[in-house]
Amino acid sequence: MHLREITDHNHDAVCALRVRQGQDLFVALVARSLDDAASTPDANPWYRAVYSADDPVGFVMLSWNVPPGRPGIMGPYFLWRLLIDEQHQRRGLGREVLTQIVALIRADGATELLTSYQPGDGEPWPFYQRFGFQPTGEIDDGEIVLRLALSDR
């Protein structure tokens, strides 16, 4: 598994990735995510396609090293989107992506990674909990905010 920039060459293939039925309640599709990144430059969006060999299998997007004081933007490091295509789920790819992201942001000086999720049937909380995320006690726009302390890993 490796991360690649999204270019004109792979854009359509990455945007064609889909989650399982019902999971779309918890994660936006890639095209919407790219639109959100373009419309929210203050969030310092950083995104990559997830590849297995030469095949796109997922997408990840973070707010990367956001300076304090930007209203409505969590950070400095916030896992904004993580999507693994329905045909490639349950193979450990999500865990591999997070492991790689943690290494990258730790190298950039991060001490924690934040994320959030919408509660509901089929929610991603068990996945994040197994990885080591803990609830912060905050709710942001109806989503439960989680924190992964990088010093503990």
Automatic annotation (TrEMBL):
The keyword Acetylation does not apply. GO terms for molecular function: acyltransferase activity, transferring groups other than amino-acyl groups. CDD domains: NAT_SF. The keyword Acyltransferase applies. Residues 1-151 form the N-acetyltransferase domain. Keywords: Acyltransferase, Transferase. It comes from the Bacteria. This is N-acetyltransferase. It comes from Kribbella albertanoniae. The lineage of its organism: Bacteria, Bacillati, Actinomycetota, Actinomycetes, Propionibacteriales.
